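Holo model, guanosine-5'-diphosphate. Inputs:
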Amino acid sequence: MVFEGLADKLQATFKKLRGRGKLSEADVADAMREVRLALLEADVNFKVVKDFVAKVKERSVGLEVMSSLTPAQHVIKIVNEELTALMGGTQSRITISSRPPTVIMLVGLQGAGKTTTAGKLAHMLIKQNKRPLLIAADIYRPAAIKQLQVVGERLGTPVFSLGDKESPVTIAKKGVEHAISLGRDVVIIDTAGRLHINDELMDELANIKQQAKPHEILLVVDAMTGQDAVSVAETFNGRLGLDGVILTKLDGDARGGAALSIKAVTGCPIKFVGMGEKAEALEPFHPDRMASRILGMGDVLSLIEKAQAAVDIDKAREMEEKLRKDAFTLDDFLEQLQQVKKLGSMEQILSMIPGMGGLSKKLEGAELDEKELKRTEAIIRSMTRKERRDHTIINGSRRKRIALGSGSKVQDVNRLLKQYAEARKMMKRFQEMQKSGKKLSGFR
Ligand code: GDP
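Output:
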């Protein structure tokens, strides 16, 4: 989980403060020592940690306590506010030009996730009813052009390429002209990276900037490289002037040092974070929500937004209708599981629910992961149509056949049928609750 270590430590520190009626200066000092250590262990920049702790301390000592909060809650509130401020305060969006096309230039080192992110950005823009065009200007990394073309095809988005013989500067310039002639409203340039920062790379990017006149230069960096990501951001910002940062692979970053330091060190806001390899796995970065997650206060807003984006309303209505008629079949069950899966891993979902972050670890093994879903799918696909419509006919010998057909064990089939029965029961109960709720409001 993102920020796992830091979240655990901060929560443990504040747990000690809870239940105290009053906090002495020594209590605050102790807590701040632990906060400082926790941040350093999370690989947050040393100077950033120093300033952060000093600020929180200054605000916590001699604090005028609000009557609605205990002193401990008050310290947590301050830490929450300062963490939010550290990451930029409010969400930073990309500028969409009033005179299309908006040109977005992605820069960064090889392997940071530029090409993947170009696809994710295009996906996000399409969902916002924009018409992006991708430009394949990464001529150095083998297969980068092909990779972008595959992504474009999947998204139904045109990809401009001149192969790997033209210079990236020419490709970018011609690509933008092509976008204008096609009437595309956003252009995303996937520039070439290098393994390390060097003058050749910087000169090339400066030339592209001059020719393609981007509205947004976004640096793509790998969160897992911690403070290296921060120094890469510093260098790129010094040479090119960045408009923002996209932090990739945050899904695999248990520490979070880059996420917490980049804004404070470079002044560049993080605009998006990559949370996985799939096209949907790009999220706008909300400093306040991220701070809440770190402090175990959940992030219900992001969860609701994800649910709204992933759930197909017509489908949901159809399911409701089926439930009402008691016609919720195993096929429907599978479809529902797939919908839930679109929200992300169980661990990611739980970390967004207040107080549930810690639980996600205990659920390991029980989580609804890709493999489990595949197995469920295989089992359901091994059933006959009749069985899928009426699970009550699935007796012992049918279970054996289904297990054999799907390469699983009879116990797996049993477990699945039990889950399905539970889901039906729960949905029915939920419906009854809704009905009685309606009656009550009608009564009033
Ligand atoms: P480029 O050289 O900068 O264009 O890098 P790529 O786009 O080819 O990405 C390098 C690797 O990182 C690929 O295997 C991607 O699937 C992976 N990757 C990119 N973004 C993310 C992310 O947000 N999370 C995870 N887990 N993997 C990512």
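Residues 363-367, 438-444 have pLDDT under 50 and may be disordered. The first helix runs from residue 4 to 17.
Archived with the compound record.
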